[in-house]
Amino acid sequence: MTTIIENSKPSLYERQPEISTRFPVHQVREDFPILSSEVRGRKLVYLDNAATTQKPQSVIQAVTRYYKGENANIHRGVHYLSEQATQKYENARRKVGAFIGATVNCEVIFTRGTTESINLVAQSYGRAFVREGDEIIISALEHHSNIVPWQMLCQEKGAILRIIPLLENGELDLGVFDKLLSSKTKVVAVTQLSNVLGTLVPVRQICKKARDAGAVSLVDGAQSTPHLSVDMQQIGADFFAFSGHKLYGPTGIGVLYGRAELLERMPPYQGGGDMIRSVSFEHTEYADLPGKFEAGTPNIAGAIGLGAAIDYLQSLGMERIAAYEAELDGYTRSRLQEVEGLQIQGNPEEHRGAVSFTLDGVHPHDIGQLLDQEGIAIRAGHHCAQPLMKCLGVPATARLSAGLYNTREEIDMLASSLQGLRTLFHP
Ligand code: PMP
User: Could you tell me which of 52, 216, 315, 380 has the fewest CB atoms within 10 Å of its CB?
Assistant: First the structure.
């Protein structure tokens, strides 16, 4: 799969210079302490944001402030610090709810991240409502975390996993999806944005079709939430999963959004403290939402840090971030296209974030290691999407993924380093 962009056309940036000037990217960079560091004697160029994003000072401060002066366990305490910590944790939930357009805050469940959120749905909803012979539809674009939990469920229940295939350009073949959907379909679980090809998936349309067929839908928002403004009412998903660390927040915290009516009907995922109303040796009454799904002491600092990350993003404006990144994405693709022997994997019409590529005669791991010598951080490998690699017919790709603080100058550096690599291997 290759993209063809005519070199004679002006780049997207040249056509829309005003967007860049409106987004204060150089000022934004100053908010991220790590970006001014050096790696191997070179200025860091961080282009591995699909793996994890760097953290702004305000997030670092929120976490530090919590541990320095506010640390206590939540919900059960009667003392001042516990009340403060509880308030901050629940305030973070409110921020998340408003950020994603949840109807009520109890639809926001804190988890460890996207992986745990999807496992929660597979283990709780899936074990309760999926039966032998039922079908679960996922897509060829999925990350392992939206494949393996469903495979495990299918194995346990004797259910069948169906896959929406890819079109040549890296988009999903929705014609096949229509044919796969039937009264046997119980769950449709798809990513909103591919972590490998950058394909934007029309999840609203997919969720509607799933609902019309009587199935529940889950959207993996791990990659979309940092790049787009997401709205649960607009997407119409029953479940939506994302990770704090990809959203400029801390690691070890993530979110499962679920429609309250469904969460109410689901059994708990884990048992323990905080998820109960009363316990006796004979019988346990579970807590109301969201407590029912948050057994044990949660990642309090992580939730507070995620709340601070959301405040930060909202201070910049998700629409502005999206506009800036769309332009940078177009610029990146056109610059890479100029590198001799470079093939971009996939050419989806709607794309954002990750760009995967191969370079003739150079192994992706060598690309990653040689760029690292120049202080440029990208990723090489299967990106936790081995079935997708198989569809693409490659064992691995090199992948760059820009975030809100990356600049055209950094993309230029990457492109000229790649051109240098190509010359090194093909003198
Ligand atoms: N889904 C997608 C599309 C991802 O890119 C990732 C992370 N690479 C995940 C799920 C898993 O996220 P986490 O490791 O934060 O649980």
Answer: 315
